[in-house]
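Practice problem: predict the structure.
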Amino acid sequence: MPDSPAPFASLPVLVALVSAFIYTVGALLVKRSSELGVGVWRTAFIANLLTGLFFLPLLLLGGTLHPELWWQPVLVCLCYLVGQWLNYITLDQGDVSVAVPVLGLKILLVALFVTLLGGETLRWQLWAASLLAVAGIGFLNRRAGHPAHHRIGRTIFTAGLTAVAFALFDVLVQRWSPIWGAGVFLPLTLGLGAVLSCGFIPLFRAPLSAIPRTTWPWLLGGTAAIALQSLLFTFSIAQWGHAVSVNVSYSSRGLWSVLLVSWCGHWFKSREQELGRHVLAWRLAGAVLMMSAIVLVVLV
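Answer:
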């Protein structure tokens, strides 16, 4: 399915940049709520409920129901939920410094799946930008010294499967949304995700009512921001396509996280503010690679 024309060529890239920034703010808020004891499953449940609600207004755009293709939104929803579940398993039980660069392979997987499933021929600039973005993610997540990695094999395995699930989600949204219309396909898919998230409830460490009142602003603020960026990011792919370009631009969240932690991490009570020169040098190199990838995408 060919990409739909955007009002101007770089609009999907700009939307992805904004989404990446909003995601980073949301991630910092969610991280703070996690430190206050919310837990990943209660966070995922609230995030999915809000995401389902945020996508409902898209119904006003209209579209066409295809009961005979019921399996398409179900499959895309399962890709989303499985990816989310594997992501939480990876970050909860694995080494983040190993997991994040592996998760960055999603950019290359999107390019590969767009070629294999969508029958598109990508320009060399997009492949080069994808490689630069993956390298930039790796540099941005370098740590000082050489700490021992625990469960490295399992971390690489689950992070790799996470990247596969989310890459399939993006490519299938781009491929199937035009058939239904974004105003039908996305609310149906993410609404189903909200319903199926009820399966997370048995995994809660305590009921939602046990969350302290002072923790709720962090939790709701973070999950609302993540739901909003999900709406912007996914709608952009569904409406205009360009999944590869959008993912390269969206990978700037690694750069945004470094900048926000450095500038205002104390607002979120982050412990990552003080960086050594070695780490700063790696992250500067990662920022250069990341910006080079985004420039390549904009110029395509």
